[in-house]
Amino acid sequence: MASSTDSNGQQGTSYVQMHDRHDATLVGTHCQYEYCNQLDFLPFRCQSCDHTFCLDHRTETSHKCTKAGAWAERKRKAQLAQPAIGAGKTLNDRVSQKPCASPACKTTVGTSLTPGVHCSSCNRDYCLKHRLKEEHDCKNLVPIGARPIQIDVAQKTKSVMDRFKAWGTKQKEQAGRALPKPKPTSAAARVAAVNQLKKTAKGDAKLAPEKRIYLKVEAEAETAKAKFPKGEFFYSQDWVVGRVLDAAAKSLQVQNVNNQSAKEEDKLRVFHVEGGRVLEFNEKVGTALQSGNTIVLLRGVGPAQEDLITM
Asked: Per-residue pLDDT tens for 70-123?
């Protein structure tokens, strides 16, 4: 068994344990220290004088090595023989010669006498005088190579809400494609409407009748590929709203990237007309909706917390 070695392949100690596993006749070696001569079955070899010693006399000091330090000297020379980091390579300055990025400055930076200082905020190079952000008005500069400045989140949200309110107003004025006519006032009329919906609604025929919820589903025309982006479908009471959204988007040929984009403006949401609110994806269908209700697929409206139609 040998002792551990360092990264240069040299032994970490001046001695190494000897063991010939291929020689079945090996019965040990006598320690070569003059006053010991002990038989050791796992002897050590000194890497300086190349003699064999027992456990007690394995170090150079304990057996008074005649060539003490020889192994350390070999190790030092081996380390010095290795090439230094970057040997044979030409190291260039990261900033090449160019004028200081400050408009009023005529200094050339990137030379041996005037090194350039790179500003990571605006992505420009400056002389020592203008290296500080306050000196080159960094906060008012557009970073070189940066993407266009994103519109403020509040402004984007306001724009989406304005679009939604305009859409709702337009639908009301046109007798409502997405917003239905007033619900029947009598219980008998509501039952009749649901019974009529059951005759035309489409869905999975394997779904048990007692588990079905019958809904009218519509989508904004600009988000759908279908010529008439609306229909009547039935879904399971045990589903969550997110699953209904996926099924409805597929039926109405609406692009659904909810699982691919984290941007709210790309997400589809389910708006419950009778409830006047946007439903959360994890709401249970049987709790949030009733047969005969209308839902609308809208993009970019966000998880509303109030009645959006009356805003």
From this structure: 999 999 998 888 876 655 555 444 557 889 999 889 899 888 888 888 888 898
Q: Where are the domains of the chain?
A: 15-81, 92-149, 153-299
**Fold agreement (92-149, 153-299):** no
Q: What is the mean pLDDT of the chain?
A: 77
Mean pLDDT over 44-48 rounds to 90
Provide CATH code, domain 92-149: 4.10.1110.10
- Domain 153-299 carries which CATH code? 3.10.20.90
pLDDT category at 212 given cuts 50, 70, 90 is very high
pLDDT digits (tens, 9 = 90+) for 112-129: 888 888 888 898 999 989
> Which H, E and C letters describe the chain, residue by residue?
CCCCECCCCCECCCEEECCCCCCCCCCCEECCCCCCCCEECCCEEECCCCCEECCCCCCCCCCCCCCCCHHHHHHHHHHHHCCCCCCCCCCCCCCCCEECCCCCCCCEECCCCCCCEEECCCCEEECCCCCCCCCCCHHHCCCCCCCCCCCCHHHHHHHHHHHHHHHHHHHHHCCCCCCCCCCCCCHHHHHHHHHHHHHHCECCCCCCHHHEEEEEEEECHHHECCCCCEEEEEEECCCEHHHHHHHHHHHCCECCCCCCCCCHHHCEEEEECCCCEEECCCCEHHHHCCCCCEEEEEECCCCCCCCCCCC
- The per-residue pLDDT for 236 is 93
Enter the pTM of the model. 0.41
Domain 15-81 sits in CATH at 4.10.1110.10
